[in-house]
């Protein structure tokens, strides 16, 4: 009797299984946010080659509609003394400061705000006391041209851009101080308006306090850190021998500031997720995603080098007349390659 019952159960289960299989039409379509997710080969291929974002997702990476001024030929440098911007207000290029191509740098933080005066005078200040300046540049019609957050740790402190007649510069923040140099290269000591650190260090030394000096060698033992790239102190550095161009945040013209060609994005140091914009005859740019790879607190930051998370380096094509805008980028190393 028990044997018959087991046979009936087995046959019933087999019938149910065969019934289910007869209506099986494949694995369930994967869902994202409750909606069916369908792979799009063109978007996948574009991203795999160069991290280019195409389609409707591209809009998520654009701050605003860009000004037509970004397509103009780059300006030359004029001979002019450095200018300090330190008031939270809107400046007008041509009225408050001269038009020109410029290099900008954010001032150092106030030394009186650091945490540990005795053991480490270069320790970071309390987060709420950081001196930080956010700058937004717009054309005469109010259209977006450029933006940057000047901060030595969590922003970009050195940039290069054109200041065009009639454009406005809005500066806001916590005691912001930005120095504008009318030169391609920053001087050895660019903090020409601020002696607070010199005075502070001199005072400590006079009191017999031992000063902790930080150098690139101090950072070499930190996994993933490349001090030479992370601590770049010029907006653009070109090595003809290595066929590389190293740039900070800014707007650069191909054929003027770097040669046309095929480049590999070899290294980056980026404090936040962002993008590089490539303009070619249109204010609607190509968008290349750049992922955050700077982590840590204060000067105890470290960089996850691209070798550690990206074996296939992005490849981009640059033509004469193109404009590139690495947005919120501390450093990007472009290596020219034979196509």
Write the layout of secondary structure elements.
Blueprint: H1 2-22, E1 31-32, E2 35-36, H2 41-50, E3 52-53, E4 83-85, E5 90-92, E6 100-106, E7 132-138, E8 144-150, E9 158-163, E10 168-174, E11 178-181, H3 196-206, H4 216-219, H5 227-230, E12 236-239, E13 244-247, E14 252-253, E15 261-269, E16 274-279, E17 286-290, E18 294-297, E19 300-303, E20 315-318, E21 323-326, E22 331-337
Antiparallel strand pairs: 1-2, 3-17, 4-11, 5-10, 6-9, 6-11, 7-8, 7-10, 12-13, 13-22, 14-21, 15-20, 15-22, 16-17, 16-21, 18-19
What does this structure look like?
The chain is an alpha+beta fold and 339 residues long. It has two domains: 39-63 and 223-339, no CATH class; 72-213, no CATH class. It has helices at 2-22, 41-50, 196-206, 216-219, 227-230; strands spanning 31-32, 35-36, 52-53, 83-85, 90-92, 100-106, 132-138, 144-150, 158-163, 168-174, 178-181, 236-239, 244-247, 252-253, 261-269, 274-279, 286-290, 294-297, 300-303, 315-318, 323-326, 331-337. The strands form six sheets. The protein has a five-stranded antiparallel sheet. Strands 12-13-22-15-20 form a five-stranded antiparallel sheet, with no helix packed on it. It has a four-stranded antiparallel sheet with strand order 4-11-6-9, with no helix packed on it. A hairpin with a 2-residue loop joins strand 18 and strand 19 (300-303). The longest helix has 21 residues, at 2-22. It starts with a helix and ends with a strand. The model is unreliable at 2-20, 115-119, 222-230 and 295-302 (pLDDT under 50).
